[in-house]
Amino acid sequence: MTALFADVVGSTSLAETMDPEEWAELMAEATNRMGRAVERYGGRVGQVLGDGILAFFGAPVAHEDDPQRAVLAALDLVREIREYQASRIAGAGELRVRVGINTGPVVVRDIGSNAGRRDQTALGDAVNVAARLQAEAAPNTILVTAETFAFVHYAVESRQAGALTLKGKAEPVQAYEIVAWTSPGPRPRGIVGVRSAMVGRDGELSRLRDALGAVSAGRGRAAVVLGEPGIGKSRLLSELRASAALGPTPVTWYDARCLSYGQDMPHHLVQSVVRSVLGLSEDGVDSIDEVHQRVTTLLGPDAASARPFTAHLLALELDAAERAGLAQLAPEALQRSYVEALGALLRAATSGPAILACEDVHWADEASVELLVRLMPVLRELPLLLLIVSRRDADAPGWRLVAAARDAFDDALVELHLTGLDEDDSRLLIGNLLEIESLPAQTRDYILARADGNPFFVEEVIRMLIDRGAIRREGERWVATGSVGDVEIPETIHGLLLARIDRLPPEARDTLRVASVIGRRFAADVLADVVSRR
Fold first, then answer.
1. In angstroms, rounded to a whole number, what is the distance separating the alpha carbons of residues 349 and 298?
2. Domain region containing 17
3. Whole-angstrom Cα distance, residue 463 to residue 471?
């Protein structure tokens, strides 16, 4: 779990200068704003501590990116408190907050009820360190431990805070100050300095290339790529993109990506589509004037009718006349206008062959799904390859896009179900990454056993072995050092597995716990017997 402590700086001195009721109102609003920032990213406020909060990311439900969510929430939390301070009456005291974040194993327990919900506390060294780190943070800053930083380093602007001596800790704790979030994309795959050609997906890549060939001839196509986390969906798209760039006909590529916490963010997938088509920044910092200019450049005289709906889809502030015009529309009419505006943008932008890649559709929001389902007939008419990339999650709202693509494109649809690599391909992948002839058989077999044919798992096990010094490079050779088998499963894989386990029904989770005690492989009737005895 990732624990987040946030605390108002100098609340005691503030209380001395304020009426008690005013101070209580001030703290209540401050903690409410903190709580909203936490819940925005799927976290849970376990306790409100008067002038601060203890929040959990990963309990009671785990996500594969809980440390990233906690840092994003912390950045929003600091910004919320700054805005609250700016809105208050001058001279009413300065309101600032400090945040500490740590990731590690904890025990979560109920401690009572509060307004119809049970408060929880988390026990363990990981929580204690987060609390101590919060006390060391400067006002309006965020400190994280090395354990949390390892999950977010690729996406943040940060400063080293050094090795801090924390109360109750025998050894100094390495800390980092998070300044800003800089990367809207997912965690980069692969290992620095180690690269492999794509393995085991030649047939799938060939089918996508054939679909792209039909698009280059002016016919619309769609492809659905399905598979479990880490199985190679994004790598397959990367290879297709590289192939398209080398083709005789220029191909325009539009990227749209769903966020893991985006199901409660209306239109977040459609916003990503619009930003890519208009060439806007992924982080949504473009002004409404810039958006209007891009729409006008693309649509020319027809831009006037599309501009307000495009800006509204992007959640930008409209002028009074535009707001009044949209307010008069019934929901159905507004939805039709969205579809017409986005359809006009895509028609104007797609003068030649193009690819619209919608990734992580299992995290899509309902509003985006509804709009894109209605847009399918338009996409079918364009010289465009619609790529829908998703996990096999038929209960997710995004699965409707898979069904809609099947209906709209029929025999013009390519559907790929990616499975794990077989043993030969897994060995080839490890060999490409680590020059297998110089790697001991015991180490190779350990990686194979832990990865189970999942390319991402292969990479992460190798990354962990390198980071822990279990294997190291000597010239052009990789050599094992000590007992490789003692190294545990990487934390990045733990997050994926815990998130999948927590989505299971209670009975399935209980059966899985029993199975984990029996062992890695066993007869099904043994499991059935033990479960029935319980």
1. 7
2. 2-181
3. 10
